Amino acid sequence: MSTGAAETDSQAAKAASTSGVTVSSLENTLKDKLGAQHVGIEDMSGGCGQAFNAIIVSQQFEKKNTLARHRLVNSALKTEIAAIHAWTPRCFTPDEWDKKQNEAGA
């Protein structure tokens, strides 16, 4: 019985190619549509392009709460999100990101 999950690397590559969603396509879309200054995306699905975690830094998040930021991102990635199974964005303004980086380095 198939679970729908890729069991081999070749199945994962085929799934990614059919969904059309890749780390680089997500990064490019976010940079283009949100003017994101930093985008870090991790494919959590083992390469099949079905589950992603993301860190997105954009000035457009200024004065927006978490829900509004997620809605902005989801709107920018409407087509891509429809083709994947799981999407987890973490959204920061440039100032928030700098502060977080400084805390991590301290």
Order of the strands making up the biggest sheet: 1-2-3
Average pLDDT reading: 85
Sketch the major β-sheet: 3 strands, mixed
The rough form would be described as: globular
Descriptive overview:
- The protein has 106 residues and is of the alpha+beta class.
- Helix content is 48%, strand content 19%.
- A three-stranded mixed beta sheet has the order 1-2-3.
Name the features:
106 residues, alpha+beta, three-stranded mixed beta sheet, globular
What's the layout of helices and strands?
Layout: H1 9-19, H2 23-34, E1 38-43, E2 51-57, H3 66-76, H4 78-82, E3 86-92, H5 94-105
Parallel strand pairs: 2-3
Antiparallel strand pairs: 1-2
Sum this structure up briefly.
This protein is an alpha+beta fold and about 110 residues long.
